Amino acid sequence: MTIQPRLIVTGREADGTSVFVTDELPKPTVVGAIPGSEFYVLWGTEDGTATVGTKPRQPNVIPFFPGAGGTRVLFLRWAPESSAPEQLGDPDQLAAEAEERLPGLMGVFEPDSPGMHTTDTVDYGICLEGELHLELDNGKEVKLTPGACVVQQGTRHAWHNRSDKPALMCYVLVGAERTL
């Protein structure tokens, strides 16, 4: 059974009563620069310190990667590399489309090493369906299967779906400051 991402958000009324604010099936964002992948960008908080209370909060999901103290949560369905559609079109136009739909995403990728990227975030990645390989800059890989959780601490890496089925990951990104 394929998991359908669902977003449920709670909040508080002015009198402090807890309520459901959102319960929806989000639509995926697709970009030609990463063919076959579906991004379900669900929620994010502003950079700095997250707050809670009776003031209504709206998701802050732009840019794609949060700054220090900000967060993002998303599901990402990865197509198998063996059956992913070919990237079609002018690379500059594909990058512009990705920048419009998922601002800041493509800027982290290395042009000379397809898929490799580094972000100033601590990422919690949880494999929900299928399998995905995490490659580090030394070429070593680890295979994630459902139930695996990886803590990505701002290191250079790439993701690969080497299977014949889609893989679904849940990522929680926490913006961080890079130190040496």
From TrEMBL:
<dbReference type="InterPro" id="IPR014710">
    <property type="entry name" value="RmlC-like_jellyroll"/>
</dbReference>
<dbReference type="InterPro" id="IPR047142">
    <property type="entry name" value="OryJ/VirC-like"/>
</dbReference>
<dbReference type="Pfam" id="PF07883">
    <property type="entry name" value="Cupin_2"/>
</dbReference>
<dbReference type="InterPro" id="IPR011051">
    <property type="entry name" value="RmlC_Cupin_sf"/>
</dbReference>
<dbReference type="InterPro" id="IPR013096">
    <property type="entry name" value="Cupin_2"/>
</dbReference>
<protein>
    <submittedName>
        <fullName>Cupin domain-containing protein</fullName>
    </submittedName>
</protein>
<feature type="domain" description="Cupin type-2">
    <location>
        <begin position="113"/>
        <end position="169"/>
    </location>
</feature>
